[in-house]
Structure formats: structure tokens, C-alpha cells
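Intended use. Records like the one below are meant for learning the mapping from a protein sequence to its folded structure. Do not use them to infer anything beyond what is encoded.
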Amino acid sequence: MKKFFLLFLALLTVIILASCEKTYDMNETLEWSIENETLRISADGSIGTFCHENLKEGYCDYIDAPWKNEVFDTVILEDNITYISEHAFYECEQLERVIILGENVTVGHSAFAYCKNLTEVENSDRIICIEEGAFKDCEALGGITFGNALTKIEEVAFDGCISLKEIYIPASVSELSMTQNIHMGGNSFMDCTALESIVVDEGNTTYASRDGVLYTANMKTLLFYPLGKQDTDFTPPPEVEKIASYAFMRQKLLKTVNLESQNITDIGYEAFLFCDTTLICKENSIAYTYAQKNNIPFELR
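Structure written out for the chain above:
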């Protein structure tokens, strides 16, 4: 009986250890080295997967990449890398510069999240997709250049990038996340408090911009008003019929938004949430009803 109990205990220990073990699927072709505080990485395709799948809870437990605790301020990603893996440089606060040598590169989920000193992404025009939270809270990132390879910028991709002042959207981009609600994904540029202007290439068939404000290509829907835009008064262009949900959320610089135009037929959910803004509107208009219903300051004209 005692032998049986000891055998059972040993088996139980093995099972517990196995269930707690955290491993990651490292690309066998991965090679990396550090010289003069420069991390150079080579891998065919993806660097690897830095997570342990928690089947019981239904999510991945992310773990540190092998270079996480090394000292480097520059990363060179060789030309055979096409996927910068999820969490690959997560919280690498010493990182200042990234050099991309490959073509058609995807930046994975939270790949550079919380790299608070990252200021430069060289050859960023070779990126085709920026996944959720890829550059979240990169507080020193003052600018990034997109090329015509880029097609998508996912939820909260640049959330908290408080030094970004202007974003250029190429003709190739067909998908941006525009909700400001973090529980529904979050705006691609959420909490970019210095962002003054979004400029969309004239050849883009999904989006358009005018005076730094983002619209649908047909100009009928105002999608997003940048948080750092310095104007105190704003009147939407006459083509605009709809104000999208969360379009002005957290806007603190605007004093008035003139919605007198009878062309405005719809104002989305929480479009002016947490704003210090007064709506200028006509009595019995859509804007008037919206302001009353949502306790937003308004002025009748």
C-alpha cells in the first residue's frame, strides 16, 4: 500500500510540474548576438512564439524572449524576418532604435509595447501589417513612416504614443480601428495626446482626411478628430452626414463644435464622451436632441 501511495505521489508530481511548465516554440533557424549594445537577429520568417498556451483558462501566458535581460539599445532584424513576434521586445525599455531589413514585415501583437525610449523605426515603410498594441506606450516615438505595402493598423496599435504628432495613411491601408472603447478593441491611435494631424493619401479608397481630421473616403462620416489638434473651434465639412461613435472622445482642446448643418443625420454612441466641448446646434435638430439626451453643453443658433 505504501509503495502504491509513493508511486501515485510521484506520478502526481510529474503531472503538476508538466502542467506548470512554461515553454515557447522557438524558431530553429533563430540566431542572435549582441555587440556594442546592438542586438542582431536572424530567423527564417517568424522569430518564434513567446507564450505558453493555458488551455484551462483559454489564453496565452507570455514569457520573456531570450534577450529580454540583455543590454542593448539597437535591434537589427535581418532580411529573412517577415514576422516580428508577439511580445518579442515587450518592455525593453532601453531600446531606442529598430532597423528592419526584410520586406513585407508584420509587427506582431505587443511586439514593442512599453518600449518607452524607442524613438526610431528605420525602414518602417516595409511593414505590411501592425497588429494589436504593437507600439503601445512607446512614449518617445515621435514619428513613423508608412509605405504603400501597409494594409492594416489594428486596435490600440499606437495607444499611448504621446510624442506622435502626425500620421500619414498610405493609399494601401484599408483597415483602421476607430473605436475608442478599450473593451471593444480600442482606437489605433488611442490616447495619442500630441497627435495633431492624420493625413490620408488621395489615392486611398477607404479613408480621407481634411485639415488633419479623418473621414470615410466619401466624406460622409467623420471618424476621428485627433486629440492634439490645436484648433479651439471646429465645423465639419458640408458633406458630412454622420459623426462616428467615439469620434471626439477625450477631446480637451476644442471649445465648440458647430453642428448647425441640417446634413448631420446621425451622431454615434459616446461621440463626445469626456469632452470639454459645447455643441452649436439648431433647435429640434439631431445635434440638439443628442446634446440633451447625453447631458452635453449646447448653444442654440
